[in-house]
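Journal club prep — side note

Before the paper discussion, L.F. wants everyone to see what a predicted structure for a comparable chain looks like in token form. Sequence:
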Amino acid sequence: MKSLTEYIANLNHEYTYKIKVLGELDADVLSKFKDGLQKFDLESCSEVKSSPIEEDPLGFPGYKNESVDMFDITLNYPANTDQVQQEAKLAGIEPAKIKIMTKEWDDSMQEEFNRYEETVRLETEDYPDASKEQKEASTKYSESFKDIVKNATKSEFTIAGDKTKAAKFNTDDKEGVNSPLTKTKRNN
């Protein structure tokens, strides 16, 4: 059985979070945020690092051409991400512009992203020359559209039984000329 001092020594656990804020984080807002985190016994806060401006910042859908400020915090008292988010909101950071995650989770996602980037080939191999069958298939495919392309600017299509008749408008006969709307006169 553990002694009381061993038990208390094992209770000293640090809670580390990675925080990403969309846009430039104001120094006053950061100071208010740190003050709010003192209730969770803020152990440390790393220096704020800014990413270059990205067209689509990762983790912030709907925002374009923004940079992301990132920093790590370490707390001695347990706090979940919702509690840290609430302190950020009280400091003046919009909830849609902040992402809070545990450092372990962020590190694991970064490792997976790096592994994925290593597997993606930036160059494609040159394809071999087309075989005789491929060339014939390409020719047959392109020839099947020649009739459609010839008739592209015309509207002459044969339908079941006969050609289409020209559309008839009410202005084509004398009947539509004497409508009440054509007899109105303008007052100048």
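L.F.'s comment for the group: The first helix runs from residue 4 to 11. Keep this in mind when we get to the figures.
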